[in-house]
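Form 7-S
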Amino acid sequence: MIAQLRLAWRLQRWEITFVAVACLGLAAVAWWLTLDMRSILATCGATAEAAGAASCTVIYAFQESHGAPVQLTQMAISYVPFIAGLVIGVPIVAREMEQRTALIAWPLAGSRLRWLAWRSLPPFLLVLVLSSVVAVAADQLMHAYFPRSDIGFYQYADRGVPLVMRTLLMVVAGIAIGAVIGRTLPALLGGIGLSVAVSAGLEVALPHWVPSTELTLAEVVDAGPGSLNTDVKYRTPEGELVDADAGQSMVEAAFAADSNSEPDPSTMPAEVIYGIAAGRYDEVVMRESAAIGLGIVGMGAIAAFAVKGRRAG
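Output:
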């Protein structure tokens, strides 16, 4: 393994350096912001809470003081899976073929699949470590930003296990694209398109990993930003559920009927929100991770078939 690590460093020194510096830099910024917000919370006590200090009493206390840098950092972290995955993954096979070193490397390995496994494992493990460092830092950043709430699905894809799994998927996808196309730049461009498709697909799939249920007021508002809302309906005084457009029309008609006074709430439809409560976060993570794991296996199989069936030159 030591020899494989040295080989990976020699062949991808600049890519590894770039990804490592970017990931560790983002993690350092996230931790600095986290510790800064927690130091402010540490000053909360009987006197500060009695004085109504925002950081001691309000869920969204840090939006004004830390909102911009936190959002900028989180936005940069959201690109880690795709940048790290493609920058590290694409050249592993594509560069060997492009520079014709595969003519030497594959026969010496005795088996192309063995070569692919040993050549891919060190970068894969490196990205696993770096993405985990960023994922933990990003997760702690969001917990510090909303210290009195269950953050649940807030910034779901950009922290914790989902960030790591998506990064690993893109590493293997980059390897597969590089093996299929055989040229680094076209494979990178194809990888960018695949990144967009993967991101959009996972975003669409997110509300469907578990069934949506009717959320209580506490799950929607009191718990903070953590619930994943999927639909809005209205319940009429008779108990009938109608869609959002019909419910809003009924509300507007009730106000228009008597412009001099506010309608009796008991005669108006009540808003009903459907979604996934923050408490079901772990359940969703496990199901999505299993699906992404299958995607990683599938991409690995594509890479293996491409390498096995390709001409070295």
